[in-house]
Amino acid sequence: MTITQVDVTSAQFKANPFPFYAQLRAEAPVFPVTMPKPIKRRAWLITRYDDVRDTLKDPRFAKNRRNAMTPEQLKKMPWIPPMFKSLEQNMLDLDSPDHTRLRALVHKAFTPRLIEQMRDQVQTLTNQLLDAAEPQGGMDLIADFALPLPLTMIGRILGVPAEDNPKFHRWTKAFLATGNNTNLLALIPTIMRFMGYLKKLTRERRAHPQDDLITALVQAKDGSDQLSEDEVLAMIFLLLVAGHETTVNLIGSGSLTLLEHPDQLEKLRNQPETIKPAIEELLRFVCPVEMATERYAREDITVAGTTIPRGELVLAVIGSANRDPNYFEHPDVLDITRENNRHLAFGLGAHYCLGAPLSRLEGQIAINTLVQRMPNLRLNTNPAQIRWRGGFILRGLETLPYPSS
User: Fold this and answer.
1) What is the model's pTM?
2) Which helix (H) or strand (E) holds 296?
3) N or C, which end of the chain is more exposed by having fewer CB within 10 Å?
4) What family is it from (predicted)?
5) Which of the four CATH numbers 1.10.630.10, 1.10.8.10, 1.10.10.10, 3.30.9.10 does domain 11-403 have?
């Protein structure tokens, strides 16, 4: 059977990518596709669990393309405005030793004490969002619940003053649109305003420390080592955009999946104590981060019999690995009590998601509270009309209307 080229960044593909990945696992586990935006280029999809796992841990796949590409290849990359340069100093785009150094410094800001302090706040905010929706008779679960919950929480954690929340949300939503291949140049005015705001906020925290994450970042030290201003700004951007996107998609797509599997929804409603394995299964099944972030081959590398040339873009497809029948019994079946669930939803190795505990906490509280408080919850639209967001790393819904009773 011939494998048809598809646009893996299209919203139509995102609706159900899993049959395509199943075909790749069986016939072409390392497969080249054309990425249409922001520039047209080739990318290699790696789809089997073993190969995805190994790729995530293999130092021959660089995160920083400058450590992999030839000078000729680098010349062909698109121009980056100078103001974006500082944002490249984030952990997602760096290799060791830079990555190791930054992670060691930032890790100290994600202490168990800080995470546990958030539990009551997450529960209170979840209840407030549902309280606001109930008199309306319904809500858009993405815009009114799944998005504001983690976005408000990360703002509080960072230390953004409550009165700045409206513009903070507005700026952040503009960045989220880049997942839909927005022209980065159009974002320059927003970037300038946001970076100016964050620089002012970090200066205030250096002068007047508070109990928040920006203070922790500007104070984070390892011996004489400390984060530079550019590194602090890049870390804040990473926490804002990458840090809450997984949770938005987990809550939105996870809720949709439960509605599409009423037996599992009922099981969770009757056994709320199963929420922890339920969230792990939803992470595996809906795959909020469909592909691991970009990696580049440092040399010609052969995977599953296919050689990936040096400098080329490599995408380890987590959404495919999490449906690999060699690791998951009945992988296309949702089972919220699944045991031995070794999914890769938060990645693996040196770049394992630092915010995984927070995402799990928010997902558990949001979905369990939604299910318990809204016993008559049901889908308010034809499943075929549900709109997914385009892009190539993430997998999430554009909108999801619900009646609340």
Assistant:
1) 0.91
2) strand 295-297
3) N
4) Belongs to the cytochrome P450 family.
5) 1.10.630.10
